[in-house]
Amino acid sequence: MVTQGVMDSMFRMELPLVEKIARPVIVYLVLVVFLRLFGKRELAQLNPFDLVVLLCLSNTVQNAIIGNDNSVSGGVVGVFALLTVNWGLTRVLFRMPRVNASLQGEETVLIRHGVVDRDAMKREALTELELKTVIHKQGLARFGEVERCVLEPSGNFYVEEMDPLRADSSRAAILKQLEALNAEMKELRGMLAARG
Fold first, then answer.
1. Which among 25, 16, 35 has a CA at the least distance from the CA of 64?
2. What pLDDT score does 5 carry?
3. Which of 70, 93, 74, 72 lies closest to 82, judged by CA?
4. Average pLDDT along the chain
5. Which domains, from first to last, does the chain contain?
């Protein structure tokens, strides 16, 4: 008898099936539109505030997705609805590249030939410190070392180094110095052996 009550509370949905499917679909579509409207910055998670917004966003929409239903069955239906709408939308957008491009938005070039585009930074609400953090993650120290830095529609940064062979030439110089140091050590060992 107790088992029946547990099973009933776990799997009996409190909301109609149509509502359990409609809620996640509506919330998903609204989130896609809002994230597109509010820009790439939210996806880039450049600072702790952006991360807090994304964490709170998931908690905020949770009740809108599940309603008053905490059943396992309701959760499974909600997950299925979310994955289905995502699968369907990605398939439709794959077949319609122009629509996909318009929904995705355009990339924003932030640095070109070592020169920072302040207007682009202002449009994306990026500070100089945040942009420096982006290029530092790529191993670059100054904006002048960047050929091109782009904020992509997905919120990712693409950074192209001004001189991509710089790392190779630095490595070659270090190897040359190590070889010279090794040769000096061999010479010193030979001199010590001759004395001893």
1. 25
2. 67
3. 74
4. 84
5. 2-104 (no CATH), 108-161 (3.30.240.20)
Quick one: which of 142, 89, 84 has its CA closest to 111?
142
Identify the sign of the CA torsion 50, 101, 119, 36: negative
Summarize pLDDT for 83-138 with one digit per residue, the tens: 999 999 889 988 998 888 777 778 899 999 999 999 999 998 889 999 999 999 88
What SS3 state is found at 162? Answer: coil
Long-range pairs for 95-103: beta carbons < 8 A, 24 or more residues apart:
103/32, 103/36
The answer to whether 93 and 103 are in contact (CB under 8 A) is yes
**CB 79 within 8 Å of CB 28:** no
Long-range contact list for 62-66, CB < 8 A, 24+ apart?
64/23, 64/27, 65/23, 65/24, 65/27, 66/23
pLDDT tens track for 154-170? 788 999 998 766 556 66
Q: If residue 3 lies in a helix (H) or strand (E), which one and from where to where?
A: helix 2-11
Q: State the Rg of the chain over Cα.
A: 28
Strands in 157-161's sheet, in edge-to-edge order, are 115-116, 108-112, 146-151, 157-161
Token pair for residue 11?
Answer: 């799997």
